[in-house]
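Might I ask for a little of your time on a matter of protein folding? The record follows directly beneath this note:
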Amino acid sequence: MLKKILGFVPKLESDGSYSPSKKINLNSLMKNLSALCMFLVSFTLFSQCDADHTVLLTNFEFTPSALVISPGETVSFINIQGDHTVNGITNTVTEEPFGNPEEFFLEQTTGSSSGVCMGVLTFEELGLYNFDCSLDFNAQLGMNLTIDVDAFDLNDLFQLLQQQDSAPSAPVWQSYYAFQSFTPSFLTSEGPWTIFAPDDNAVSEILEYMNLGQFDGLGIPDFPEILKFHIAEGLWLEEDFFDGLVIPSAQGQALNISENTQGFAVENAQITTTNFTAYNGVIHVIDQCLAPEGVPESTVMQLIEDSESHTIFENAIYAANLSEDLSAQPILNDNQSQPGPYTVFAPTDLAFDILVEEMGTTIDELLTSQFISSIVRSHIVENIVPNSDIFDGLNLLNINGDALQIEISDDAILLYGTQNVVEITTTDLFAYNGVVHVIDAVIQPFIPALDGTCGTWTINKIPGGTDGWGDYATLDIFVNGVLFASETLFEDNIELFNMAVNNGDQIDLLFSGNYGGYQVVNENGEVIYSALGNEPLSVFGLKPCGTQQTCGYFSMQFLDETQEGWYGGSVSVNSDAGPLTTINFYNYSPFYPDRTFSIPAVSGEVDFIVSPPFLEPTLTGYRVRNANNAIVVDQSDNTSIPTSAYDIMVCEPDISSVSDLTSDAFNLDVHPNPSNGLVFIEGFNLQQAWYAQLVSMDGKQVKTFNGVGPARLSFPEVSEGVYTLTFTAGDKIIAPIRLIKE
């Protein structure tokens, strides 16, 4: 290198003189020595300014003027023109502090074309740094610099995991949105942090569990605390895990790591994908959401379902069709109107066992009785009443409309209902839609007597599918023209409705469903009316105590093109033996475009006294069919007002009762066959009463049925195999039908 700079090496002759041809040129030598010195200085300078990034200073400019670096990286500042400082403390123009994460200042230097190293800065703290030159008017003329000390942090990692080529097996978009919204500092601060991120399937499951929409979950009051329970302090990679490891969470409670055949789990969640690393931590994907101790249960319904000592009350709530109300989230779902919140006084299974023993019934009979809704509603108060708000003399109103009163005596909290007193044994089981208090007995509402002067009638409510009668179907029961009960059926199970009947009562049944139906069993255990998916489904004029002499049923079909339901109109049906029934249509709308009713048929002549409807009477009409389904009155002309009809025979003289409607031959159709436990019987007249036996191949009777007319038979509990189905109608035994249960 020295030879290259000097251009030659002088040689001393043997006599001590220099060879003339090799005489040293002093000017050239000085120039080369100067170049050598500058090289050595420059070499030393740039060695001292060695850095990850370089910024050059010239008149009025930093080059580059903006720089993005990672924490821990270095930046060298080299002045190549003019006098400059590197000022990272106070804005020269505004005289306000820059507010940089760290303050830096490099003293004034004069630059040169070969470059003057002003110094090297190391940036450890994340954030945005601002600089200018504080000399003269350089800053005013735009000599400014920004250095963004950024890192590939957990926030960046979450964003990367949303990309298809980097995503785990189950995406974590919903977790990222939650962490970014409520705990952003953990994603960008130095940490390190370990995040257990539930995948989207886990988030969807917990939202469904809590009965919340996608964004409603963000409104949970404890949500930040719940998220912090998913964050562990320190960097915990998969290779650091072992069975029994306990690590602190950012929320304060410990996270327990366990090992299983699938790998590792944190609390109750399986770790499915591991070791997504970033500058400030690591992300592990889990298949369930975590919750710290002390966080309320999702709903009061979930509290009851999770309790091993409240299984009967849980089933009672479902039987009363109140599970959806108790699962609603009115507090968290501010954007929509929902029922609640509620305070629930929850009786234990033992409390129900004591109740049914006192009533002389069974749990199954109680759950299918018409009283179960009233019993359940007696235990529910709308609004939240925690223990802190309970005081002696407090009056509450349950959703049944009954008063409940609190009495505090000898450290016991007593709850007085309309019929009995119970004790609150456990208080303040909180949920996000209310609170549950445990009680030691069932609050008993007023239950009317089931035994009248004519005994008890039973109405068998028979489902038409897995959802019973459907969401909007009802069976309205009228006694002497007054609504006595309005029954629903939402499950694929037969339910019973028992009612007291008295001599002189008239019972009308109006069914609004499109499938399924019901049977009416009188005080003697006889099926006197059956409506199972066949028109007509409603009946007027049933009478107890055997006072009803019937030769079957005739029907009335009411027509109304106005679809106003014969508004204001009525028809009175009278026989030689006295009035049969009166139908006031405005009580039983809608009837559009037509509606058909059954009425018990009696021997002799019948009169139909018509009071025309108020609205468009010429567009209304009616038809009457006798017990043999033949039209005997036809007032269907929509050009005239319907009029009364007199002396009409609705019962053939040789028909004396429903059971007499047998014939020598029956053409029965049982389908489907093979069956999964549900068949339909067709071929009987609508008025034909029958009895059936299901018999196994070894001759054992496994189930019996009875009904009137076409029907639906359900036997899902029967084992698979081949059976015979034998029908008896009146005094006729019908040949057995081979039936296969799959």
